[in-house]
Amino acid sequence: MKSKGFTLIELLVVIAIIGLLSSIVLASLNTARAKSRDARRQTDMHSIQSALQLYYDKNGSFPMNRNPCCGYPDTSPNFLQELITDHFLSATPHSLTSSNPYYYYDYGPGNTIGALIVTRLEAANPSVTGYPGTCRPWASGVNWCDQSSNTYYCICNPY
Prior knowledge:
Blueprint: H1 8-59, E1 72-73, H2 81-85, E2 103-106, E3 115-120, E4 152-157
Antiparallel strand pairs: 1-2, 2-3, 3-4
C-alpha cells in the first residue's frame, strides 16, 4: 500500500524555494524604499532651494549659518527657522534617516558658492558628470560635492 503525502525531502525543497524567493522580494523592497527616500530628499532639497531664493529676494541675504565652520544640520534646533517664520516653508524639513541629514552652509556675499544645501543619497549611483540638478561648488576632486566618487547631493544658491 502506497501512502499519500509528501516526503521530508520534498517539503524541505519547497521550504527552501519559498525562502529564496522571499529573500529576493525583500531585497528588492529595500532597494525600492531607499530610492523612494532619495526621491523625497531631492524634492525636499529643491523646496529648500526655492524657499532660500524667496528669502534672498525679500531680505537681500541668505539665512544665517548657525554653525559656520561645519555646516548646520537639520537635527539642530531652529534649522532654517527663518524660512518658516517668513512663510516660505510650512515646516522644518528633516531627512528621513538620521544618517543622512540635510546640511546648510552660507559662505557669504562675494563668494561664488553662496548658500549650499547638502545631503547624501542612499540608492543612487553618481555618474562621472554627477547627479542631475546638483552643483559642484569647487573644482572636481576637491571636496565632498565632487559627485563622481561619492553619494553627496548638493544644491548651490549663489549670491
